[in-house]
Amino acid sequence: MPQATTTVTPAKEVQELTVVEISFYDHEIRAGQKLIASISYDHADFVTQPWLVMVNGEEIHRADTWAKCHNFITWHYTQGTLPVQQPFAPSTTGNEIKADIANECEKFGFELLDNGIYHHDVKLGEVGCTDGQWWFIPASSVHQQKVPCNSAFDAVLSLSIDEAASCEELLDKPFDQLTAEEWRILLEYEPVPESRELVVA
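^ that's the sequence the OP posted. Answer follows.
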């Protein structure tokens, strides 16, 4: 006997949800351009449900997988029972900046940690954006002052160039004075070939 099907139409139009990956452990869930919730990971030991659904900086749900958190958000959003995320939460801007920096770091094979940008466990420096102005601080900088630049790409590129300069300095160091870490850096270093013009005398 065929079952009767019923279709429930929500009272208001529901927008398709999209996921913005900030890092492996942090995601923003958006309806159109509007942030409605975020999913993050609890790194504490012995937590059986480490994935969290956060709205307005408060935990509203826990699960053992990321997918269950996403399903929770989707279901409550379509039902209209998800708490309302306050617009323009301060953390959103920070998350977008962090996402831009993380994307650029990935292109260069760098690792973005809480205290800066690293390459093979060596700190290259820090990158940030204050009042719409991008900046970077090379780890090799004596005064640790922010150097202004135009974008996250320019900032990470500048740290990359600074790292290459450090490798050039290591090449001038006597081999018997290099540490194991410095040897590893040099083994993976690929100098950028310079364009040379042949001059006929």
